[in-house]
């Protein structure tokens, strides 16, 4: 998957009730879903048109035993997973699952940054999928890190993946919201988490065509709004929510 080093290339929901989650996200985000057809593995693909957007799987038994809550995981593309894992560890991160193969798909590893935010490393087999507009309905429009400490978190990701600083927004007492770019294009933002948030995390924003309609579907589907609609620079609106199993996600789009 040449040319994708440092880019988010996949997203995956690990949850306690995959059937309920499939129904919820199909309704809220507008995805279709189908079985991945992987021998011996139950794995669902969320799709938009012909494009595969994200995956869905039951949480591993080990995670359940540790009371790890359902959550979305982002995969960052790298040229060489083994080398990238060594680099992440050398820069103060931690590898929680050593590099391993997904037959016929690629190679991956699970990691945390120096403050504990989880992400995955991935090298795929074959040609990468075509580029898409991140704000097109059903795509992932934004990547946001509530970091343990912005001043050290940003250099970690910049060093590991080549991300660069874009606009920095003064959020008053909350500090700076640092927008970052990947290959020159704005891809997300990060800031030091508020003290009342127990641990750092990545949050992914799914693009929808009509935010108010999606909010009503969140509520009717058993989800919960945790951040009411807020306008962001550029004229789009966002909302943050929990799905019925407790996984945090966000939506971005126009009102309506």
TrEMBL record:
It holds the Pfam family Glyoxalase. Coiled coil: none annotated. It comes from the Bacteria. Residues 7-124, 139-254 form the VOC domain. SUPFAM superfamilies: Glyoxalase/Bleomycin resistance protein/Dihydroxybiphenyl dioxygenase. PANTHER family: GB|AAF24581.1 (PTHR33993:SF14), GLYOXALASE-RELATED (PTHR33993). This is VOC family protein. It comes from Ensifer oleiphilus.
């Amino acid at each position: 998957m040449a040319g994708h080093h440092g880019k988010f290339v996949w997203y995956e929901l690990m949850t306690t009730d995959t059937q309920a989650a499939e129904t919820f996200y199909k309704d809220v985000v507008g995805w279709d879903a189908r079985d991945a057809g992987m021998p011996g593995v139950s794995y669902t693909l969320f799709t938009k048109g012909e494009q595969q957007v994200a995956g869905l799987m039951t949480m591993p038994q080990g995670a359940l035993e540790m009371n790890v809550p359902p959550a979305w995981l982002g995969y960052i593309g790298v040229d060489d997973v083994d080398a990238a894992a060594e680099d992440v560890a050398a820069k103060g991160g931690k590898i929680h699952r050593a590099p391993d193969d997904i037959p016929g798909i690629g190679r991956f590893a699970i990691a945390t940054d120096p403050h504990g935010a989880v992400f995955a490393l991935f090298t795929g087999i074959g040609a990468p999928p075509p580029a898409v507009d991140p704000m097109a309905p059903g795509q992932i429009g934004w990547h946001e890190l509530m970091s343990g400490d912005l001043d050290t978190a940003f250099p970690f990701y910049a060093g590991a993946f080549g991300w660069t600083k874009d606009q920095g927004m003064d959020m008053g007492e909350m500090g700076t919201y640092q927008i970052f770019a990947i290959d020159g294009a704005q891809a997300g933002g990060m800031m030091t988490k508020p003290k009342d948030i127990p641990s750092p995390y990545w949050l992914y924003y799914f693009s929808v065509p009509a935010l108010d309609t999606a909010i009503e579907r969140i509520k009717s589907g058993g989800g919960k709004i945790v951040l009411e609609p807020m306008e962001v620079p550029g004229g789009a609106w966002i909302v943050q929510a929990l799905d019925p199993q407790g996984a945090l996600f966000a939506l971005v789009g126009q009102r309506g």
